[in-house]
Structures are given as C-alpha cells and as structure tokens.
C-alpha cells in the first residue's frame, strides 16, 4: 500500500466535522487495509504513532530537530523555517510549502509506500545514545526526500505526534465495528471492541481480532507486563447517594491522596508498575518493587493499588503533589526514596496466577488481596476497609479518613465485576464539597513584568465526544519563586519543602513553562496553542454560560490546585459532567 492512501484518508477525515461521516470514511479505508495481510501495526499511524498506546516510547523529535530536518531535506535555511513557523505555527504545512517549491521544475515521481514510512519512523524511535540526533535526521530526511508535498506534511506532523485531523478513539472503535460487522448487533460489537481495547490498549490487536469475527475478541485478555485502563469512580453527593449507587451493604475504603498504579508480575517473576496513564514507572519506585517482591505471594498477578507518600519524620501522609515529584524522577532515585518514602495500599485484584478476575465479584477479589499480602507498617497493606449498610457507621469512617489526611472515601459494590476504563455504578467517591474539575491545558499566554518569559495564563478544556472544549482561562495557583515547591534534582531538603506545602499546586510557573514549551503547536502574538497533555485540577467559584469558549461555559475565579502527572488527557472531566454541575448550581440557588 502506498503512503498516499493514508494521506488521502487524513485529508478526507480532516475535511469533515460530523462523527458519522468520519466513521464511514474510516470504515471504508479499514476494509481496504484488511487486504494488507500482517500489517495490522500500520493502524498505529491513524493516531500519528508507530507503537501501541500502552507503549510509552516516543519518536523523540523536538521542534528544533524538525526545523533541521526540513532545512536539510528541502535545501532551505533553518532561519527561514523558523521565521515561517513563527508566522503560521504548523511545521507540517511548512514542509508541504518547501516541498512544492523544491519539486517545481523537476520530474518528481516518487512513490512512497507505507512500510517504508513505518520502518523509518520505528528506527527513529529506537535510536539512542551518542550521535542519535544525526542518525534520526538521516532517516527523516530520507523519507522527506521521497515524499510529495502532502506526504511531507503528514510525515512531519507524525514526527511531532500532531496529525490535526480529529481522529478520536471513539471514531476508530466505531469504524472497526462498521467495517467488519453487520448493522444487527453493531452497538454490541462497539461495546465489545471498547472492552477489548481497555484490556489491550493496542489497536493492531483489536484490528486483527475484528478480521476473525466475533470469536476473534475471545483471544484478547489480561497480560501481566502490559498496562490496562483502570475502573473509574463516579461522584456521590453524600452517604445516602453512595448507597443508592452501590447498594447495601457496601465496602467502604479510605480514598488516598496518592497516585494509582497497576502492580504487575509475570510468570518470570518480573515486577512492574504502570500508572493510569499507562506509563511504566518501575524504575522510579525501587522501594515499592522491593515491598511487592517481599510481601505479596503469587506466581503472577495484576493488582490495583495506590501509592501514598508520607513524611519520614512525622509519619504523616503527604498530599499528592508531594510524591508526584517521584513520577518523573530520573536521578538520585535511591536518595529521594529515603527523603520521600511511600506506602503501597492495595485494593483490588484483576488477575492472579494465570486467571483473570475481571468477572469475579468485588467481594471475591478483595479476599484474594487479603490472602496474598503480608502487611508491613508504612510499607504495604490492603486498603483500609469496612463493610456496612449503616449510614452513621459509614459517616464515622468518612470523618476519620479526613482526620488523618485522606481525601475522603471510596464506596464499592460488593457483588460487581471490574469494568476497566469505565465510570460505572460499581464504585463511587465521596469527599468534602469542593468545586474542582480535572482539565487539560490547550493554550497558554506569556506573562509580563516579573512573569516575563513564562507561560503564566492557561486555557483549559474539558472533553466532549473526543474533542477538547475550552472552558476558561486560569492564571493563579502556581508558585512564582524558583525555590517554592520546585523539583530540584540535588535538593537535600526535598521532603521538608513538600511537607510544608499547604496549598496551591506546588509547581512553579517556570516548571510549567518548561513542560508546555515542547508541546507548542502554534502561536499568535503572546498566545500559544499546545498539545493537550498536561492535566491540572482546577477549583472555581461557579460556572456560567459563555460564548467565549467552545464548551459554551466559563469557570468563574478558577485556580489551579494541583498538577496531575498521573492522569491523561482522556480521563479529564466530560462536558456532560460540567452541565450536570451547572444544573446542580441552579437547584441550589432555587
């Protein structure tokens, strides 16, 4: 198959806004792709990737490297590329423009096939070490020299992981169902595809399964060593509402202010940790790995758990922002493990000794957790839990959780299966009434005065049917000074700084700017548009209707309460949840 066919698909999809039309176009393409035997991995290109979603490896092409690649490939000065980028903000279009100029007057008749693109991009991703940039540039330049103008545009966009075509996950899943299954039972197949994807996080595997009909999905299951999408909780308004959602009696556990991990041990004894963003953080937590190896029995397993930090002196639990510093840590890991010790709280079992427990009821899954874990104080334990149908007893447990510094409580249905990747009525959360939303940053503005040089005002968005809808601009909550909450690699007082944190995000404008700059997609004056990747929790006074933002709403007096590196942009607040909050506000106001 020629790469041109992928490019035509990209162009067709980008020109339509209707979800059904996107599904129809992609469905037709997938039927054509099914003729390419053994090429299911090409499906990754639909998301601008060359590996499955569970694979955290990236192509490693920065904007600066892309400038050089375009310069080399099309014989133009790098300054001209940068100047053009500052004007239109799309390196893909810039590559297209320079390609057209280079091809004028030449007899260009190159035919670039998909396999060549896929193989070269894989090589770009795998190159590391000394001379990596030069080697990456060689593979990229080879592709661009073989590509026509529009192919060059999408090669560059793929390198930067920003196709800009509006290819949401939901569209891909429904297109697979549309391409290979009859109208009768189509909704059932979409659900089956979603469930299979939550297990595998691999569209190539889903595509291959679909080619074998309904029975193909029976082969997809849990695999230790590969992350899964975790089951998510809905919000409860109070204890009575929680019982209504989960039934009586229910299991009630402390809601820890840490970050969630799937603990995985395969048959070979290898233990790994995966975040809910599917990232492998095993190297950052050697203390947790040691605790698992010493205190959990089993040949293989996948356990759902929460890592919680505590102050080594006072033994008091720290808020999430404290241990969030450890997630991205690359240096002095043993040292910071002592400065910022953690406790592992295990609350569910989804796989044990070769068997999936997804369809087992929670009561049985919890019994496994209690059976296989040897508790060690401030190291590892089963999540603290009571089972009750008594509202007063539940409230007492809730208040005690808050007293010791936890976020609140989790309420779980005793007779429900584990539904990964879903917000179901099987589990809900209750915490003090605070108006807060998890949102993703999609734009930012450079500051002035003492904030000059930093991106200090952020446009945040919620999610609606795979599209990010702006809901306001927030410019407060972060710290200005370098020493306030900053993650310095050589700090000897890291735990002290974090334990003293009482409010705010604990992240500086400088740190946020450094995280956002590599994600910049384009600029206009002081404003930049960024790839939706950085998730923040935002508190607000209320929500009002507003034509200024694409969601139709705006947050009043928003403030960033924390940066959430443990959450991905697909897990943020949905627009329907915002609308629900607006209705609740109206009811309260009478």
Question: Could you explain how this protein is built, in words?
Answer:
The longest helix has 15 residues, at 19-33. Helix 5 (91-103) packs antiparallel against helix 8 (149-159) and helix 9 crosses helix 10 (186-200). The protein has helices spanning 3-15, 19-33, 63-74, 78-88, 91-103, 114-126, 132-146, 149-159, 169-180, 186-200, 203-211, 239-246, 286-295, 320-327, 333-339, 362-372, 391-403, 494-499, 509-516, 575-589; strands at 232-235, 250-255, 259-265, 271-275, 301-309, 342-352, 355-356, 380-382, 385-388, 408-413, 423-430, 436-446, 455-464, 467-474, 520-524, 527-530, 535-539, 542-545, 553-556, 559-563. A hairpin with an 8-residue loop joins strand 12 (436-446) and strand 13. The chain is globular, with a radius of gyration of 25 Å. It starts with a helix and ends with a helix. It is α+β, with helices and mostly antiparallel strands and 590 residues long. Strands 12, 13, 14, 15, 16, 17 and 20 form a seven-stranded antiparallel sheet that branches. Strands 3, 4, 5, 6, 7 and 8 form a six-stranded mixed sheet that branches. Among the domains are: 232-430, D-amino Acid Aminotransferase, Chain A, domain 1 (2-Layer Sandwich), CATH 3.30.470.30; 436-589, Nucleic acid-binding proteins (OB fold (Dihydrolipoamide Acetyltransferase, E2P), Beta Barrel), CATH 2.40.50.
């Amino acid at each position: 198959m020629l790469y041109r066919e992928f490019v035509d698909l990209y162009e067709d999809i980008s020109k339509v806004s209707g979800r059904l039309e996107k599904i129809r176009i992609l469905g037709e393409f997938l039927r054509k792709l099914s003729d390419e035997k053994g090429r299911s991995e090409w499906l990754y290109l639909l998301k601008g990737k060359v590996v499955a979603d569970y694979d955290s490896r990236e192509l490693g092409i920065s904007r600066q490297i892309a400038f050089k690649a375009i310069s080399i490939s099309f014989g133009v000065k790098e300054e001209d590329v940068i100047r053009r980028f500052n004007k239109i903000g799309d390196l893909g279009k810039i590559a297209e423009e320079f390609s057209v100029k280079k091809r004028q007057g030449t007899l260009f008749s190159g035919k670039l096939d998909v396999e060549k693109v896929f193989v070269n991009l894989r090589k770009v991703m795998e190159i590391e070490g000394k001379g990596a940039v030069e080697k990456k540039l060689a593979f990229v330049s080879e592709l661009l020299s073989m590509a026509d103008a529009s192919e060059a545009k999408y090669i560059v966009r793929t390198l930067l992981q920003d196709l800009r075509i509006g290819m949401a996950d939901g569209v891909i899943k429904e297109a697979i169902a549309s391409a290979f299954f009859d109208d009768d039972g189509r909704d059932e197949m979409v659900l089956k595809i979603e469930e299979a994807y939550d297990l595998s996080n691999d569209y190539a595997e889903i595509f291959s399964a679909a080619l074998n009909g309904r029975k193909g999905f029976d082969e997809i299951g849990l695999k230790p060593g590969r992350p899964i999408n975790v089951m998510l909780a809905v919000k409860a308004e109070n204890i009575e509402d929680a019982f209504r959602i989960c039934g009586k009696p229910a299991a009630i556990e402390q809601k820890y202010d840490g970050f969630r991990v799937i603990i995985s041990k395969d048959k070979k004894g290898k233990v790994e940790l995966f975040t809910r963003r599917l990232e492998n953080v095993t190297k950052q937590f050697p203390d947790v790995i040691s605790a698992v190896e010493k205190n959990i029995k089993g040949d293989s397993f996948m356990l759902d758990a929460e890592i919680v930090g505590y102050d080594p002196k006072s033994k008091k639990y720290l808020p999430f922002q404290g241990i969030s510093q450890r997630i991205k840590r690359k240096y002095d890991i043993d040292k910071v493990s002592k400065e910022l010790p953690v406790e592992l709280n295990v609350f569910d079992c989804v796989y044990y000794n070769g068997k999936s427990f997804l369809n087992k009821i929670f009561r049985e899954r919890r019994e496994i957790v209690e059976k296989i874990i040897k508790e060690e104080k401030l190291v590892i334990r089963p999540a603290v839990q009571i089972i009750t149908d008594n509202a007063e007893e539940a409230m007492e447990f809730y208040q005690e959780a808050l007293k010791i510094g936890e976020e609140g409580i989790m309420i779980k249905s005793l007779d429900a299966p584990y539904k990964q990747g879903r917000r179901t009525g099987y589990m809900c959360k209750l915490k003090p009434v605070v108006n807060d939303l998890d949102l993703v940053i999609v734009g930012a503005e450079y500051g002035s005065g003492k904030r000059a040089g930093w991106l200090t005002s952020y446009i945040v968005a919620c999610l609606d049917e795979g599209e990010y809808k702006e809901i306001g601009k927030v410019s407060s909550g972060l710290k200005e000074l370098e020493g306030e909450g900053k993650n310095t690699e050589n700090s000897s007082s890291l735990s002290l700084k974090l334990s003293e944190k009482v409010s705010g995000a604990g992240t500086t404008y400088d740190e946020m700017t450094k995280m956002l700059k590599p994600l910049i997609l384009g600029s206009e004056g002081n404003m930049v548009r960024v790839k939706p990747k950085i998730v923040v929790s935002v508190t607000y006074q209320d929500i009002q209707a507003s034509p200024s933002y694409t969601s139709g709403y705006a947050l009043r007096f928003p403030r960033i309460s924390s940066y959430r590196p443990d959450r991905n942009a697909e897990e943020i607040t949905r627009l329907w949840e915002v609308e629900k909050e607006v209705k609740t506000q109206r009811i309260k106001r009478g």
